Amino acid sequence: MKKIIYGIVIVAIALSGIYYYITRPVSAPSIPQTEVAAEMASSYPTYTIGTGSVAEFSIGEELRGKPFMVVGVADMLSGTITLSENPTLERVLSIGEIKVNARTFKTDSTQRDGAIARAILKSENPEYEFIVFTPTEGAEIAVTPDGSFSDSLSGTLTIARISKPAIFKITGTASADSLAGIAETTITRSDFGLTIPNIPFVANVDETIAIKVTIVAPAK
Questions:
Q1: Residue 132's pLDDT is what?
Q2: Fewer CB within 10 Å: C terminus or N terminus of the chain?
Q3: Which residues of the chain form beta strands (DSSP E)?
């Protein structure tokens, strides 16, 4: 009988040990959860387009009988860009809608600025105030291991409430702290209904307009 009791005790102890081993609390992760979150945040930041970013257009004309290149610069831009991994584990940039406040365009002449705002872009009208680029849904830009990128991005460009397809050539670099890049394309004036007012000393304005956007975007 003693042997039977002894055996039962041994089995009970063994079962208790197994039960404790299975049900005891799980060990803490080797990296605290706060550190994991911080690591992911630094690896996959979201960049906010802001101060230092500018949109620039340039177009040729004859001014008082001589060739002249008109350059206008706007310094009020908004938008976000996100760095992440796609299913192939390649780092990519996803670019959201980018807006440029057309009222902030400045050239070499305040008179020219007034003509652009009132007669060409019509940006004094609240409905025409913003130039908007909306990337094609799902479009991504690959980022190399060293953080550089160079690719084309297609989407829809809206100027003065007229929307047309556009493709920007984009180059730059992205890090955990910030993104810097340049986006360039050309558009045709007539596609967006951008007519030049009849001014005596201005003639032969080019039909094509070069657009360059310099992006400076710190990470959130």
A1: 97
A2: N
A3: 46-48, 54-63, 66-74, 77-78, 80-85, 91-95, 98-101, 130-135, 141-142, 148-159, 162-174, 178-188, 202-203, 208-218
